[in-house]
Amino acid sequence: MTAVSMAGALNRALADALAEDPTVLVFGEDVGALGGVFRVTDGLEARFGSTRVFDTPLAESGIVGTAIGMAMNGLRPVVEMQFDAFAYPAFEQITSHLAKLRNRTRGRVSLPVVIRVPYGGGIGGVEHHCDSSEAYYTHTPGLTVVTPGTPDDAYRLLRDAIASPDPVIFMEPKRRYWSKGEVTSDPIPMNRALIRRPGKDVTLIAYGPMVATALETAEAATEEGWDVEVVDLRSLAPFDDETVCASVRRTGRAVVVHEASGFGGYGAEVAARVTERCFHHLHAPVLRVTGWDIPYPPPKLEEHHLPNVDRILDAIARLQWDDEVVEVRGA
Amino acid sequence: MTAVSMAGALNRALADALAEDPTVLVFGEDVGALGGVFRVTDGLEARFGSTRVFDTPLAESGIVGTAIGMAMNGLRPVVEMQFDAFAYPAFEQITSHLAKLRNRTRGRVSLPVVIRVPYGGGIGGVEHHCDSSEAYYTHTPGLTVVTPGTPDDAYRLLRDAIASPDPVIFMEPKRRYWSKGEVTSDPIPMNRALIRRPGKDVTLIAYGPMVATALETAEAATEEGWDVEVVDLRSLAPFDDETVCASVRRTGRAVVVHEASGFGGYGAEVAARVTERCFHHLHAPVLRVTGWDIPYPPPKLEEHHLPNVDRILDAIARLQWDDEVVEVRGA
Amino acid sequence: MVPTRELLPTAEPLSLLRKDGSPVEDSPLAMPDDDVLLELHRRMVVGRRFDTQATALTKQGRLAVYPSSRGQEACEVGSVLALREQDWLFPTYRDCVALVTRGVDPAETLTLLQGGWHLGYDPYEHRVGPQCTPLATNTLHAVGFAHAARLKGEDTAALVLVGDGATSEGDTHEALNFAGVWKAPVVFLVQNNGYAISVPMSKQNAAPSLAHKGIGYGVPSVLVDGNDAAAVYAVVKEAVEAGGPTLIEAITYRIEAHTNADDATRYRTSDEVAAWLDRDPVDRVEAYLTARGLLTPERRAAVAAEAEEFAAGVRAALNTDHEHDPMSLFEHVYATPTRHLREQAAILAEELA
Amino acid sequence: MVPTRELLPTAEPLSLLRKDGSPVEDSPLAMPDDDVLLELHRRMVVGRRFDTQATALTKQGRLAVYPSSRGQEACEVGSVLALREQDWLFPTYRDCVALVTRGVDPAETLTLLQGGWHLGYDPYEHRVGPQCTPLATNTLHAVGFAHAARLKGEDTAALVLVGDGATSEGDTHEALNFAGVWKAPVVFLVQNNGYAISVPMSKQNAAPSLAHKGIGYGVPSVLVDGNDAAAVYAVVKEAVEAGGPTLIEAITYRIEAHTNADDATRYRTSDEVAAWLDRDPVDRVEAYLTARGLLTPERRAAVAAEAEEFAAGVRAALNTDHEHDPMSLFEHVYATPTRHLREQAAILAEELA
Ligand SMILES: Cc1ncc(C[n+]2csc(CCOP(=O)(O)OP(=O)(O)O)c2C)c(N)n1
Ligand SMILES: Cc1ncc(C[n+]2csc(CCOP(=O)(O)OP(=O)(O)O)c2C)c(N)n1
Ligand SMILES: [Mg+2]
Ligand SMILES: [Mg+2]
Prior knowledge:
The complex is a heterotetramer, with 2 copies of chain A and 2 copies of chain C. In chain A, the strands form 3 sheets. In chain A, strands 3-2-4-5-7-6-12 form a 7-stranded mixed beta sheet, sandwiched between helices. In chain A, strands 9-11-10-13-14 form a 5-stranded mixed beta sheet, with helices on both faces. Chain A has a two-stranded antiparallel sheet with strand order 1-8. Chain A folds into 2 domains: about 5-180, Rossmann fold, CATH 3.40.50.970; about 195-320, 3-Layer(aba) Sandwich (Rossmann fold). By secondary structure, chain A is α/β, with parallel strands linked by helices. In chain A, α3 runs parallel beside α4 and α9 packs across α10. Chain A contains 11 helices and 14 strands. Chain C is of the alpha/beta class. Chain C has 2 domains: about 5-320, Rossmann fold, CATH 3.40.50; about 325-353, no CATH class. In chain C, β2, α7 and β3 form a beta-alpha-beta unit. In chain C, α1 (about 35-60) crosses α2 (about 75-80) and α1 (about 35-60) runs parallel beside α11 (about 295-320). The longest helix of chain C has 26 residues, at about 35-60. Chain C is globular. The termini of chain C are far apart. The mean pLDDT of chain C is about 95. Chains B and D meet through α3, α4 and α5 of B and α6 and α7 of D. The structure holds thiamine diphosphate (TPP) (2 copies) and magnesium ion (2 copies). One magnesium ion (MG) binds near residues 163, 164, 193 and 195 of chain C.
């Protein structure tokens, strides 16, 4: 097998799903002739025709709202939000309907809708193009939220998301669109985390764009003598307690990393949850390495915002290695 | 001073602000002749005229978007969202503009806008009328999020919110609208938490509708021999680390309570943060007592969802009192 | 395009029956057949009785809340009877009478308002979307549904009901626009009952009529007398048969307060209500049918009896206390409950044990 | 109401100059004075030079992204020159030429696209709202701003620029509706440049024209030739003076790709582009003014020289590397940095030390 970019893997997943299941539709802004601003839908309209793959008017609530209606009528829409912040106009349709209709109807209405959301920064994008909005969705019961860290997972998770009877928010780490890897077909269930690198000393919990950064950090950490285990969550909701907690109970230390602002971010749930369940195995509090609690910075300053190897190493260093009290930052 | 309901206190705060500052405006759906569906704006249009207090067309994005424009032009809009879930159509205006415009303009544009959001359940409301949406806002840098637990705080926090140069999401615990209390004028800064009841054994962290429940629990806990300290957060963003952490370091145990679903809820931040900062003072993990991770239930079942005294006592009981390992629930 | 479905509506609402029940001679609309008119009458009488029964049950505390459609029966019944069996209805919280007219079980219609669950019926059984509370959001569901039918090669139209206030929401605009571009077979019926809770039209919209929105999307638009069941039936039927999108504004009036929780005296006069009582939709059809000799005293009595019986059934159903299983809270959040929810369900089960 | 501002637009776009620069004799619009026409020409030439300079700088990596408005100069310049000093402009990412025409410093205009900060200028200095990226959201800001001015007793109009694609967003509808109800002094100028990135009008809207949306809100509407600067100037001026809301659709074309990152060959033909190059807005005014003897070779040369000088200034400013202070990230999130952000700032400062 040859290496393929994450964008290419997503394209292949869409193509395979369209080919296998005639009820699958792909639509959104610029997904047709243009193939999407990131070319993830490249060639699909030409191949599958414009009743299966098509451009919509420019209206995100409209895209999600009509997708809901189509799903009620037996189709499986896969829709694209052009950038993370441009999904916000659809927030009511996502939160009040997409997430709740199955429950509202006691399971009579299934909404197998996938919303693809390119998210995160690191691409020099101007304001509104680099938000990490996962926490808004993971706090909304009824939604499944997944995010791939590798091309392989991009393919598999998107196939699984499309096959899911539940609505899935599919978060695509846009700065990894061009990273390459092989696409295998190992059947790993969509809702399980994966240990990307085994280690004994500390569990580094990452997802999406930060998986590669976490692996890099683990490499660098060997120089400091730390054997870091890297867990790629893959599924943010539901959270795979079993895999993560087993790892933390083994290592006794954990750091969780994401690009989104820390305050009320997804990492807070990970830290709170892991602590609740593994308290007596922990040598130190679960630390978070995240974006600052600020709006996403402009291109020239984003490097100062994004978690990087140094910051993660620094957090690891603060994990109470010498039995002295962990350094408290702030009040 | 005579006791006044929380709705009455809010009404008084609006009236006093309108009277003192000619740039204050009150608008939204049904806030005029009707006085709002909860009567919080009762009598204001008659008293201040319909250029200061007025009904708008039925469109929440429109309400917040025009409030932003008005604030840019020197006014101080106080707008009402009729119920929590009906603020979702305004999510883009809140998240992409209200929260970010000061930062975008390097402080040149101030947006002193208050968005009043009646939130939470316990009133027998049908679907979409009982959401606790605070976590969506607290995770959005640039927003201040406050919520009163008493009529007194309702008055003071709303006055402070209107006076604030920053946008404030003012979350009103609708099931406490009719609870009564005195309105004093102690100047407690908007961003500080308050110890509502001192105690030695465990810190119970609550806000909004749960403050009363927490105080009730503290009473009940005395029977079990636990001396519970109740902290009313008042300000969810920013979070008052000082007050809360000082309490937890004193008691060594903490429980955080809210109505919203637990997963990725505001309590996750509280637990993660307090643990990061007080790890070595904790005898047990910070536990959360929250709504389940489900859409808000219908009226006949809401009692099974909402945190209550028993559930909070149960969490307190699990706080490692006898040096045996805390019971882990779930994987 | 037929003359009554131009991009711009007529200046005056189309009608077939005057308020005294006399027929409008020069109407461009086709008067429905006699059996349809009799059926409109019967369903409106039953619908109204259902509505007053629900209001009464609310006063007795059997419903959490009830938004009455009294005065809007011509819209509720006229539009639904104009649907074909394969068509779908996308209602709001106010459209219980439309639902029972469509055949939804009255107790299941009231489940939402009674508080037992968020919805009582199976949408697929009578092809009725869930009663929708977030205003205007159902317009998009209807457009998506209808477009999907078109893509699947099915001849299905969607009728979506919204209020005057809901036309101000962005979703209404997006839905009309998608429907216009896709030529989706959707009938948008705006029941302009004069108010959005307390807010009158003058504060809601400055257009000559709400139907004037249609042209901005290339969607044919119709203005109709919403208290004239024959006219509502005729325009909806024509719109369904036309196959593409149509925007219909029906001018009507909400006789009761917004819901039982509302105090309408704060924002409208009793004179205004009285004037509308004088334009009653049921009386109007009754007068016409009686004048034509079609509505005999016997038939009228039979319809009244049927309505009473219907109301008795509603009473019986609603006065029965049902068990509401707390464990059901966890069952349908996902197709298969997650491990996470199973854990939470176990905790609740333990509490209840 | 003046004849050119009815609720429905004319079937054909209003114009003053034909594409060859000859005047339209029977136009209902008033031809601007000669000095205005000369100013329109001057600013368009300068604006275009600015635009090509920005495009060039983007190719050299000095800007993160640049959305060109080449071909849309009649809209960008004509509308801005029609504003009075006290009026406000609410632009989008595409409206850099409008901004420099309004007097905003070119380097500050490009700050957003250069990547140094989210906005470079002080909105209050030239009465220009922040360049707006989330589509259509600025329409509501303009309405609120204009309504506030009215409430404060000030005679201020707001001009809001949006694209054809942005008219599909719910916010555009809510803004038109609020403006209609409030009679707010807002001019909505839709630059219909044929595409929303790759999506053509045929997939965006099925109305006879976008200006046909106005009547649905009681907002007077105008369809204008968007490559005719004289006509754009005239209709915007009339709208500003009218005092209430107006919806103007200007038919124009985006000559360049959506941004430098876009590949327009994927969705449009070069023949189509060529046809629009033939309707160039600058050539048109130039031809008219030259025929009238107003644009002498000397003046033309002077304008060209001014444009070159302007471009040189842009180059100089953009080719200078600026320090971007990381600590500024924390400064303006709140009026006074919270304790929480001060803690984070301290950590970053330590990292950088
Ligand atoms: C998005 C949203 N905002 C606000 C509400 C609260 N609300 C419920 S009904 C109503 C008025 C609706 O008026 P209209 O659309 O005219 O329908 P009617 O009730 O008159 O049938 C309002 C504001 C809501 N349900 N949804
Ligand atoms: C709410 C929102 N959705 C999507 C986008 C991404 N986007 C940026 S420009 C654009 C096309 C806009 O087209 P149009 O309104 O016609 O303006 P033009 O670019 O042609 O000037 C899109 C889809 C956005 N900026 N905001
Ligand atoms: Mg109404
Ligand atoms: Mg365009």
